[in-house]
Every structure is written in structure tokens, then in C-alpha cells.
Amino acid sequence: MKRALFSFAGVIGLLTVSLAGFSSIYSGSVGTLGAGQFGSIFGGSAGMLAGGQFGSAYSGAVGSLGAGQFGSVFNGAVGTLASGQFGSIFPAGTSAPPAFVQKCNQNGGGSPVASVSCTMTTTSGNLVVLIGVTDQARVNGADASGCSDNNGGSYVYIQRSGGAFPLIKMCYAANVAGGSTTFTWTNQGGADWSQIVVAEFSSMPTSGTIIDQIAQSSGSGANADSGTTSATTHAADISVVAAARAGAGTWTCAGDYTELAEDETFVSISFSACYKILSATGTQSMTWTSTAGGWSSSIGVLKGL
């Protein structure tokens, strides 16, 4: 049973009120709000909001908000928010770019050590890059040996630095378990002056081929460089660089890179690590503003989603 409260016949349409509440608003050429809780708004050429709680809004050329709690917003050329609670807000076929989450780092203190560790609470599914540094090569080969954690991380070798020493090795673990995790860098030839840096990134693959390009370098002059990679094949990448030299020294990352860690006065080695979120393909390299002295460096570029 309906009671008419207002009537605006003609182009604007007819407004009626149902005993169930919120019946039709703007009936006719402008649109229709159907019976029930928040039914349809802007029916017809402008769009349709279907019956139920927050159904579809702006159906048609602009997009569609599907049934359910906050379904799809701007379906079509602009992008799709999947049905359910807060889906994707990026256009179909694209993902959020990689993002830096957090880092931990630690040196071995005032004496040589066999291993060095740092701890942080990670998010399940993210990717971590572990960088280990030691004063001597210590038989750390071109593999993931020396990189580990206590939470089941499976490490993949990225790159080691050029030159004999100091040695830098980079590894990554994708799809981490999440939770409080202790990361460890272990020297494979005995105790030595050591450092560890671990960086966590989101919007990274959980499996498959993740390494895009790598390079290494070494030298003895000022302003160490990372080496230059071949052209990357994927635009949304992360670039991680690290360098170390024997003895104290100063390090400043290039302006478009962000520092992860720096230790200028550690007993036997000084060290710097930096990262950059990429958005286009091309060769990658970085040059530090640094003091002269024998140094070695490496760069690893990893694919985002």
C-alpha cells in the first residue's frame, strides 16, 4: 500500500514513498530508485544502482558498481574494483607499483664475528632483499649461501660485488611467511668484520623469474659506482645498490636513490646501501659521492608485479 506525499508529474518524474521505505526517486526519464534499502539510483541512460545494499552505481559507459558491499567502481576503461570488500582500484590488467616497506640493519660490533643478524616483523607475501657485507671474500661464492632467516625464507642469489674485498652479496626471498623474523648473514670462512641490511618491499611477485638485471664494479678512486646493467625488460622494478670500502669513508647516495643504511666509521669497513623504485625500462646504475679507497659494489634490479 502506498501513499503519495509529493507529485511532480512531467519531465522530472513521480516521487512516491513505500511502507518499506525508499521506494522510487526520480521515476521516468531521469531514473528510478527501486524498493528496498538503497535500491537503484539513476536508472536508464545515466546508470542503475541495483537493489540490495550498495548495488551498482553508474552502470554503462562510466562503469558499474556490482552488488555486495562496495563492489566494482569505475568498471571499464578507467579500471575495476572487484566485488567484495574493497577490491582493486587500479585499471584492469595493472597492479600497484612496488613499494618500500621497512628495513633492518646491524654490524658485528667491535670485533670480527662469524655471523650478524637483525630482526623485523614482515608482512606475509612480501619480498625481502638481504645484503651481507664482510671484510674478506671468505669463500662466499656466487650463490645464496650465507643468506638465511628463522622463518622459512627461501633465498635466491642476486649478485655479489666486483673485486676481491670487501665482499657484498645480495639475495632475495619472495613470498615471506610474515611475522617477527630474524635475518642472518653468515661468513663462510670464519669470523670477520661484518654487516647485514634487509629491506622489505610490497607489490612484488611471489614466484617465477624476479631478477631483471644485475651488474657489479670495483675501483680505488673517489665516487664509487654500482656498475651499469643491461636494459631492463620490465618497467615497474626495484633497483638495489650496495658498496663498501676498506676502512672508514663517507657515502652519499645519488639524488634519485633513497638510503637504506650507511656505516662510515665501522672498525674495518665502511658501507652504503640504497634503493630506487623504477617506472620505466632502461639501463640502471648509481654513483655515490664517496671518499677514495679500495671499494667494491653491486646492483640488483628486481621485477615488480
In short:
This protein has about 300 residues and is an all-beta fold.
Describe this structure in words.
The protein has no helices and 17 strands. It is mostly beta strands and 305 residues long. The strands form five sheets. It has a five-stranded antiparallel beta sheet with strand order 3-10-5-8-7, with no helix packed on it. Strand 7 and strand 8 form a beta hairpin. The protein is globular and about 50 Å long.
Search tags:
single chain, five-stranded antiparallel beta sheet, globular, 305 residues
Oligomer: single chain
Q: Please give the order of strands in the largest beta sheet.
A: 3-10-5-8-7
Could you tell me how far the N terminus lies from the C terminus, measured between alpha carbons in angstroms?
A: 56 Å
- The value of Rg in angstroms is 28 Å
Q: Count every beta strand, where a strand is a DSSP E run of 2 or more residues.
A: 17
Number of helices: 0
Helix and strand sequence: EEEEEEEEEEEEEEEEE
Largest sheet: 5 strands, antiparallel
Strand content: 35-45%
User: What structural class do the secondary elements suggest?
Assistant: mainly beta
Mean pLDDT, nearest integer?
Answer: 76
The low-pLDDT segments are 1-86
